[in-house]
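no rush on this but wanted to send it before i forget. what follows is a protein written twice so to speak, once as letters and once as structure tokens for the fold. mainly i need to know what kind of three dimensional shape the backbone takes. thanks a lot i owe you, the record is right below.
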Amino acid sequence: MHPVIRCNEVMSDRSEVVFDRNVVEFVTVAAEYCNFLERSEGAVRAAFVDTLLKLLPLLYLKGSMLPECSRMDDDDDLERFVTEDEYEVLRLTLADVMADRDDYLDVFVADMKYSDTPIRKTVSEDLADIWQDIKNFVCLFRTGVNQTMNDAICECRENFATYWGQTLVNTLRALHEVKYGLDDEDVEE
């Protein structure tokens, strides 16, 4: 009889992060988020917003559950897959879907401490910013190279904490207002 070798006995601690259940679930939700936005051209705003109000909290939850990790290669800048043109095309597509409900006032930005008034933001730019980071992560993860995947997780986790997590909750608040706001013509009775 041959001894059973457990996967975690063979893999290093860093490799284990790549196959952690929370990482796999995050990758799944992240890919769905990217695919949804990439297929949004011509979407009906009410249905688009309704889907995002379900997808964004899930993305936030799964992002907050990414395991702690450390980079395998501190000197290596990770490859970027999203081009400026792709970003801009998506942002304009999202702006078209959101139309007159794209703008919102944000009080949770660093510049707010220097201003007496809220800062104007757009749902389309926020969604595109989140998409850019998540899309780069998904593309890096698809390489199948453990080191690249590990470092992508570490970077994504850091970016969640420092940028796109807050952007996501701000955007969620704006989308909630679009769906449920009293002055909105899209409110379903």
